[in-house]
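Good day; I would like, with your permission, to put a structural problem before you. I would ask you to consider whether the tokens describe a fold that such a sequence might reasonably adopt. The full record is reproduced below for your convenience:
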Amino acid sequence: MCTWESRYDLVITITFERRASPRLSSWLKKVRDTDQRPDWMLPHVFDELRQYWNTDKFKAMSEQAKKARDSLKGGSLHTEGANTIGTITREMLGLQGIGSSRQVEALDGVQIVAMAAQIAQLTSALTELERRKVAEQ
């Protein structure tokens, strides 16, 4: 397993979302379309993804995304191009690159739990720093 200092978490997350996430999404779409496990994917991950892709939740999300893409050909529901409201909001707040890839959530629940724990630790550390600053004043 690869590890790094916690101070690099945000940079690594942003870099992943900007560079690796689009590529991973493209690879997963190809896997879903061919329904064949590539050599780089573990068998149990492929099985879990296939189960996820067959859920009503995923099918509804996929259908909604398809309609949004189709709407771009005529009148568009999106006034800012193909970006979601969440993406537009993040860009306006200066948080470009931070987002989520719903297909990735099926890859490894343990990683999601670990990231949630890291976020909780960072939040706790920030709260403690704020408390100390107030106490010093």
Summary: Confidence is low (pLDDT under 50) at residues 100-107. The two ends are 43 Å apart (CA to CA).
